[in-house]
Amino acid sequence: MDSRIKALIVDDEPLARTAMATLLAEHGQVEIIGMAGGVKEARALLALQAPDVVFLDMEMPGGSGLDLEPFLPASTRAIFVTAFADYALQAFEFGASDYLVKPVNSQRLEIALARLLRQLPMRGDPVADSYLMLEVDGKANRVKAADVLWIKAQQNYSAVRITGKATSMIVPQSMAEWEGILPPEIFERLDRSVMVNVMQIRTVSWLSRDETLVDFYGDPEPVRVGRTAAQRLKMRLSAGR
Questions:
Q1: Do the beta carbons of residue 213 and residue 226 sit within 8 Å?
Q2: For residue 124, what pLDDT is reported?
Q3: Of 81, 93, 182, 231, which one has the greatest count of Cβ atoms within 10 A?
């Protein structure tokens, strides 16, 4: 089974596309499956295949790289590569895995790829490869279980945050139902209203005895939990599972 990272490069400048392809070629774990010169061309390629990551320019004729968000598969990460450092906040609100400022050097790219690898599920893992069907406004959405970052109860509904997505999906599912659906190997219910994917946790900040912030890869919005939830999370992380 091919375990390489499948990458799509989107940039309106041919030289920039070539430069990024050359840098990526230095990393044997990356396979470039396509290059696009703009948003329209990228949409056409994304309709045919789902890359693991898109290296995406911010400003391009015919649309911003941010315009691709609705067309990215839930399992696809985005790494912005741009000449403008002042778009970083927008990129992380978008759910970007990383933000690279041109000209990109090999060392900085290596850091970005290492971060990306921590976010991608292991190939061939039956848990990572399992899918969910989420009903939103009468429409079924197929997403990888491993791409669910966290779930919060909202009365008879729940808010589900998917990696790479800037907003949560509201689905008619209770927390008890989620416990019976999601693989316990990677999910932990912290209290009555919060469940998290422990494999997608980036940092945990213990602010006080009663307040802890849990930060996730590809999501600018941390989850705030109380004392009981924080203790349960600490036990799970300490157990190494």
A1: no
A2: 47
A3: 81
If we measure between CA atoms, which residue out of 114, 121, 73, 122 comes closest to residue 97?
A: 114
Q: Which domain holds residue 223?
A: 131-239
Q: Is 184 helix (H, G, I), strand (E, B) or coil?
A: coil
SS3 1: coil
Q: pTM, whole model, 2 decimals?
A: 0.53
User: At 224, which CATH number?
Assistant: 2.40.50.1020
Q: What is the pLDDT of residues 6-39, one digit of tens each?
A: 999 999 999 999 999 999 988 878 999 999 999 9
What residues contact 13, with CB distance under 8 A and at least 6 apart?
Answer: 57
- Give the CA distances from residue 131 to residues 2, 40, 141, in Å, rounded to whole numbers and listed in that order: 20, 28, 10
Question: What is the CATH number for 18?
Answer: 3.40.50.2300
- Total of domains in the chain: 2
